[in-house]
Design brief:
Layout lengths: L13 E5 L11 H9 L2 E4 L2 H10 L5 E4 L5 H11 L4 E4 L13 H9 L4 E4 L4 H9 L6 E6 L4 H11 L5 E7 H15 L3 E6 L7 E6 H8 L7 E6 L13 H9 L4 H12 L3 H13 L1
Parallel strand pairs: 1-4, 1-5, 2-3, 2-4, 6-7
Antiparallel strand pairs: 7-10, 8-9, 8-10
The structure holds S-adenosylmethionine.
Amino acid sequence: MSLFQPEEGRLAPGLYIVATPIGNLSDLSSRAATILGQADAIAVEDSRVTAKLLAHIGTKRQMIPYHDHNADRVRPGLIARMATEAIALVSDAGTPLISDPGYKLVREAREAGHAIVTIPGPCAAIAALTLAGLPTDRFLFMGFLPAKAKARADTIAEVSAIRATLVFYESGPRLGATLAALAEGLGGREAAVAREISKTYEECVADTLPALAARYADAPPKGEIVVVVAPPGEAPLAGAVDADALLVRALERMPAAKAAKEVSQATGLARADLYARALELKAR
Ligand code: SAM
């Protein structure tokens, strides 16, 4: 029996890593559906979430909760079962192991000599990269930034010189603070906020980091979010930054001096020049 052709009948024993949709259930591949329908058991993050997916494909399988809080306890049993049974691994959404549990399961399955198969599919980071319109030849997946301001700033500083597009996972309530920290640490680079990918309210808003920070400062969006940031080489040169646009947006929220300071920090342009320009813009 081939591990790779489950249509032939019962699945061979081993570990099957199955990517599931990130919003739109129609994105489940037919191969993923076949594997999930034939697995002897499925390791799941949240059985309520996976039960909905299984109902969508008209199947019921044994589900074994496997998440950050029980993984060390549950893993040995899963590994033992892989010797004789097909064990699938899914997360609540997207590709397991990507900001989700699973890497130790894969490592220990390999060490135990079990067959391991991946069923590729949706991943929010990759989907966001396809929407952002930023270079994709090199990218660095950063997952979630730390919640605390100092740790977040330190992490951003660590990657500020890396010549790759940066990809961050984020949630609506934290988006404003994250964009402000990215603007502070990375300056006026181009970026994109991709939201609710594959769902009804999917959108991708592209602008400079300071402009995005201003846009979302007091208006946290709903839903799931990926922030994509251009590499340093792709940032507009200081003189070419559309400082007027940044100043106009900043002036909507603060006086000229503060606006000049914010735009100066974001772009590296001289604060005095920006202040003079802000006064001109205000006088218009
Ligand atoms: N394993 C998943 C994957 O392959 O993308 C990621 C799981 S991680 C716990 C959840 C984060 O992924 C969300 O907070 C958000 O940043 C991102 N995400 C998941 N679904 C998304 C969607 N439909 N649109 C935008 N971002 C999404």
